[in-house]
Amino acid sequence: MKNVILITIDCCRQDVFKCYGSQFELTPFMDSLENKCTTFTKAHSVGPYTKAAFPGLLASSYSMEYGWKDNCAKEWVLVSEVLSKNDIATAGFHSNPYLSGYFGWNRGWFVFMDSMKDKVTPEYPYLKGDIINKRVEKWIKFHAGSSNYKPFFLWVHYMDIHEPYVPKQEFLDADDPSLQLNEEQMFDLYKNVLLKRDTSNPETVLLLKKLYQAHAKETDRYVEQLFGILRELELQDDTVVIITSDHGDEFGEHGSLSHDSTMYSELVHVPLMVYEPDREGSNICSSLVSTVDVPPTIAKLFGVNPSENWKGQPLLPVEEYRIGGVFGEAPEKKGDKPPETIQEVHYYREGDLKMIYHEKKDSWELYDIAKDPGESRNIVADSGDAERMKEQILPRFQRSNR
Amino acid sequence: MTVMKEISEKRKRQCAKFVELSKKVVRDAFDKFGPEGIGITWTGGKDSGLTLWIIKMVCEEAKIPIPRTMIIGEGDEFEEIETFVGKMTKEWNVPLEWRRNEDVLKAANHTLNAPVKVEQLNERNQAELMRIGFMEDEFPFEAESYAGNHLMKTVVFNQWLEEYNLKAAVQGLRWDEHVSRFDDEYFEFKEAGHLIPEHTRIRPILHFTEKDLWDSYAAFGIPYCVLYEQGYRSLGAKTTTSKESDIPAWEQDLENTEERALRRQDKEEAMSRLRMLGYM
């Protein structure tokens, strides 16, 4: 039985990777894994920000399935809980406060390091990937060397791409004059432009994107480091690695920055690659899939039965995946203020059509992703499919109140 | 009383190995710092209790007395803990001292949840609050509040080290006991800082999981406080410790449920991070 590692990269857009179309060589290491990966080109997150996305990634559910909660809802069954009940060792390493033990995400983990007791700085309000990796290495060594060894499921979450984009010089393009900024200047951009969601100056938005991309390069390094740890411990041939993200980040595509509650592709299209050491040759899968499918995939890899509460299905083998529509949902949020009342946002995608509903504006948007990948032409008024697509969303709206 | 539970011979041998490893850490500590240079922290709880039992064994074998031991009186103790500690101190001949932040207790009039005004505190306590960045004028007298915890526990600990010129302190921490404990080492050197004396922290039972611990209690007949029989998994200050169950601690689902009840410090840490991430 192989071990499984789930790597989630906060804020990582799909288009950071070469296999998803990037021209920028940001992720040479992760790109190099292609021949042993199944790459899902149309993978979607169940939510556009961390708190709305992780119910899919770790509990195969949706953020408002049982009503929006501050904590990890008790009805969600985390993949860690399912696995640890089946004698698989489970460990989680991250530094995102929304997923901390305080909010109840530490259920079912043999070791859960949420780093909340660590000191951080305003420029890096999280733990850097190399520190996370050091702890991971220590745990794997301890675990793999113990007489109590069981196959393990490890979840590692890297925050390095998350704002306030303050990348180190070594990841910035030395030839680009616009990138001759010091830390303070980069942090000022964060405070004065990004936090205010100010897209009025396209050059500034482009600059922010370049800083973001530098962080993506940095993260690639940390993933490479993690694989190096596996190799040193001679576990690389015994471990399946899933690489994905919770959501992307906006760079003015729809007039905003960072990640709020719109459901456009810059936020809800996520990378999703499954690295298998025994795989020969890359497998590109363009079925519509969702991060809600990640926990069932992991359970299946361990030969463990899924929870009845889970809404997704195993991604592998891809031939057996039942193709259907994918959903996402979240409370409306803008900038750094939490909403006073919950107003829902939903999306449903089926084939190339995507419907988005905002309760706040009572607005419906329909896009043909194939013809209009930028989601700029709302065809809800003209499309014969509009009613059918609405019918998929309506039963989900406020469903926990019924 | 002792834990009533069947422990197989194989498991007993395994637990004995864990105990042996802890004893080695303790012996190393005695070699490095001398028994005179070491202080033992005790809470009356299961972790420091196991640690103390192990130290007692090492001392008996070496024919030396147990090093000076200290319990922090937070002003909010369970009576059951006090009773248990009193009993074990006599039985095991523990040179125990109860230590308290008398200044804070006085300012709070020994009343739980009473507001303590910072300006009423002595210079040391005020300096300590400044050191941790506590800027407000008052705080509630309870050990689980950020300021309260620091003054009632951390300051008392540091002052104890200073008074006896201790080079090292023993703590009953375990790796699996709380989030982010995993980084801890058996010996952790703490640099001298403002108001903190240089010292080494020694954690002989890091490698025990909660299950290993209770199985050891059962296998070796180690006494424990009756509260664990009543469902408490972890014991902090009386008013802020809660229990999720009424069955004995060792019968609860140790691997899949949380040991430590949520404490206010956890909330403050999480909130402070959220603020830094620009969300609040």
Gist of the model:
The complex is a heterodimer of chains A (402) and B (280). Chain A has 402 residues and is α/β, with parallel strands linked by helices.
The N- and C-terminal alpha carbons of chain B lie at a distance of 50 Å
The 3D shape of chain B can be described as globular
The secondary-structure element order of chain B is HEHEHEHEHEHEEEHH
Uncertain stretches of chain B: none
The multimeric state of the shown protein is heterodimer
Cα-based radius of gyration of chain B, to the nearest Å: 19 Å
- Summing up helix and strand content along with how strands pair, one would put the structural category of chain A as alpha/beta
Unreliable runs of chain A, pLDDT <50, ≥5 residues?
Answer: none
Overall geometric form of chain A: globular
Give me the CATH superfamily of chain A: Alkaline Phosphatase, subunit A
What is the rounded distance between the termini of chain A?
A: 42 Å
Comma- or semicolon-separated keywords:
heterodimer; A: 402 residues; alpha/beta; Alkaline Phosphatase, subunit A; eight-stranded mixed β-sheet; four-stranded antiparallel β-sheet; 9 helices; 14 strands; 25% helix; globular; B: 280 residues; Rossmann fold; 2 domains; six-stranded mixed β-sheet; two-stranded antiparallel ribbon; 11% strand
Question: Mind explaining what this structure looks like?
Answer:
The complex is a heterodimer of chains A (402) and B (280). Chain A is built from nine helices and 14 strands. Chain A is an alpha/beta fold and 402 residues long. Chain A has one domain (3-313): Alkaline Phosphatase, subunit A, CATH 3.40.720. In chain A, the strands form three sheets. In chain A, strands 4-3-5-1-6-9-2-10 form an eight-stranded mixed β-sheet, with helices on both faces. In chain A, strands 11-12-13-14 form a four-stranded antiparallel β-sheet, covered by helices on one side. A two-stranded antiparallel ribbon of chain A has the order 7-8. In chain A, helix 4 runs parallel beside helix 6 (202-232). Chain A is globular, with a radius of gyration of 20 Å. Chain B has two domains: 9-98 and 164-276, HUPs (Rossmann fold, 3-Layer(aba) Sandwich); 100-161, no CATH class. Helix content of chain B is 40%, strand content 11%. Chain B is built from eight helices and eight strands, in the order αβαβαβαβαβαβββαα. Chain B starts with 8 loop residues before the first helix and ends with a helix. Classes of the chains: A alpha/beta (402), B alpha/beta (280). Chains A and B meet through helix 3, strand 4 and helix 4 of A and helix 8 of B.
